[in-house]
Specification:
This protein has a single domain (5-351), classed as Cytochrome P450 (Cytochrome p450), CATH 1.10.630. Helix content is 50%, strand content 9%. It has helices at residues 5-16, 32-41, 46-50, 53-67, 75-80, 82-92, 99-110, 119-145, 151-157, 175-206, 208-216, 221-231, 263-266, 302-319; strands at residues 72-74, 237-241, 246-248, 251-253, 258-262, 320-325, 346-351. The strands form 3 sheets. It has a 3-stranded antiparallel β-sheet. It has a two-stranded antiparallel ribbon with strand order 2-5. It starts with a helix and ends in a 5-residue tail after the last strand.
Length: 356
Amino acid sequence: MPLSSADREKFVDVMAAGYPRVPTMLTADQPDHTRYRRLVARAFHPKVIAEMEPVIREITVGLIDSWIDKGRIEFVKEFGVPLPVRVIAKALNVPDDRLADFKRWSDDSIAGIGTNITVEQRVQAEYGVNEFQHYFAEQINLRRTEPQDDLLTNLLNASIDDDDPEVTDKRQLDMAEMLSIVQQLLVAGNETTTKTLTEMIRLLAENPAEWEKLKADPSRAEKVVEETLRLSTPTQGMWRILTKDTELGGVQLTKGQRIIIVFASANRDEALYDDPDGFNPDREHLRENLAFGKGIHFCLGANLSRLEGKVAAEELSKRIDTITLSDSNKYEYFPSFMLRGLTNLEVEFTAATGAR
């Protein structure tokens, strides 16, 4: 439904108080997309991500240690949220006393994605985004004179080789572009990973034979993560605008029409996967799932998310003996047709011998 003139003014006011919201990697087309990708790709090179594993493992073990004696936890609050939040905060050098703000800013960034919230709720969320922008703008400006070994400094100093034939616009990132990229990293770095971690433990608890296989052989962790991504795709799909008239599945589509590409549907394609609704980490074509998209817009943070899931599966299976889902669970999902994840999940468990 179109906004009224009064509602439009509300958004004009809130936007004026922040930095411009500019399209970057998620929504930009060529040639802008190639420029952005070049400028941030080095910070997410597989070697750089692999070097984060000790930090991810340290955070993971610390979280498990904080509740291993309880026997029952609300998994989203105690593990699903804090693990990816702390990991991406570490990459951005966000101090511990701002972690709650960090999570709130992430929630504000996705408040209107695939949901049915009021105009006032959307406006309040945009004020939260402004707060995020001003905080990170200050941090980026500090790094102009005090560079650090972190992602913000890397973005600030990122450049494109003079002889790169695919990029004609070789400008470094301006402030609005850097803030847009950090915002995307904030959301992709924790919202989707939280949902994946929670679905992973739910599926393992519902399939005790797979839990036992993982405990006996932690090297199965990567398979478990991939099957979770396939079966419980956290980002269900993505909007796209057609650039030309075409026909898809017998339906005529026209240039300029907005469509949603549903990754979750493709991930249950009967032509590719046997028993697509079942949880089977040993199935073929696991890496062909579309949880992180495909093509030039393939998620830049895919390796980081997969690594967090792998480390989590390894450490949880080492430190927990048995795990079950509490009878009190209502299995309520985040009210969005784009982002799918449980709002909470009560789990009961017994600690493995020598878990502490």
